[in-house]
Amino acid sequence: MRRGLLKPVSRLLSIPALAAVTLAAWAAWLGWDQHYDVHPDGSVTGPYEAWQVIGLVLTLLVPVYWAASRGHVVGAVLGTTVGLTAAASYDWSDDSSGLFAVGVGMVMVGSLVVTAAVSAVIASVKRAGQRTEA
């Protein structure tokens, strides 16, 4: 009986836990690089390099896999989406053009869709593996 009561609580706790991990990963990979690079031809890139974003995505696969493989798909999706949206909003809010809101919206929708797809695949593969073991 007691184990049955703890299951919903652990599922709910996975949301803020994944949000916190996501915020920390954003800070580690993207939080320190705030400068745009101006090339000799006048083009501007940045502030992030591709390897930083790839590192963030690969880092976030670990907690998403952990949560989704344990049946916390909603926590994996919502926690990661909330964390990325909050981090992007805070990091980009000093943009004087006001277009940061568009970027934050794109991060929110993109992370929601991609994390939902990845979590669904992980959970279904995990369930299929459990069925073949039994």
From TrEMBL:
The lineage of its organism: Bacteria, Bacillati, Actinomycetota, Actinomycetes, Kitasatosporales. The chain crosses the membrane at residues 51-68, 73-92, 98-123. Keywords: Membrane, Signal, Transmembrane, Transmembrane helix. This is Uncharacterized protein. It comes from Streptomyces kebangsaanensis. Residues 1-19 form the signal peptide.
